[in-house]
Amino acid sequence: EVQLVQSGAEVKKPGDSLKISCKGSGYSFSSYWIAWVRQMPGKGLEWMGIAYPGDSDVRYSPSFHGQVTISVDRSVSTAYLQWRSLKASDTAIYYCVRHSKMGSSLSWFDPWGQGTLVTVSS
Amino acid sequence: IVLTQSPGTLSLSPGERATLSCRASQSVSSSSLAWYQAKPGQAPGLLIYGAFSRATGIPDRFSGSGSGTDFTLTISRLEPEDSAVYYCQQYGTSPLTFGGGTKVEIK
What we know:
- The complex is a heterodimer.
- By secondary structure, chain A is mainly beta.
- Chain A has strands spanning about 5, 10, 20-25, 35-40, 45-50, 55-60, 70-75, 80-85, 90-100, 110, 115-120.
- Chain A is about 0% helix and about 50% strand.
- Chain B is mainly beta.
- Chain B contains no helices and 11 strands.
């Protein structure tokens, strides 16, 4: 079974750093793009960026470029989403998703990770 | 590409037909449009890809149609478990984008 399992919920203060993870299993992790999607409280879905484990290529949505860092470590089949300095407005659920077609970043998302709730509050 | 979904909320009874619209600001290449279902407290899941192909395990009461800039998700006979928010997504042009979602409520 193809599966993405994300790290647990986090509660942080403004200015803290954070790195959340997404571990893939049941497929060739190196061969499929992984994306991150944000869902702010009561809002819709926003595509943040993608990474290709095969060569660590990373691309960002213009809205998120410079705000977060996406990385992958294919040796442990894990993708990461990182913040250097969190803000209250980063409070959201973050989902990792796998692109459905091998080697293609222009494909639908399937499956989705279970989501990681990040709460930033003083 | 901006995707606009309508209506924002749909309130219908079990057995009724639901019609959800997704309109794109420019043509979606190769009908690269997907629909996802997000139930409360759960991650979204794939329903439809390629505008009309059902994902594995999705009942045939869910169907997708459309091309170019206008796409539709139809739920032919609503069941109580269909209560969710439905999102469309275009994946033909980067950056990939989602619509704002349509909430389907079952009376």
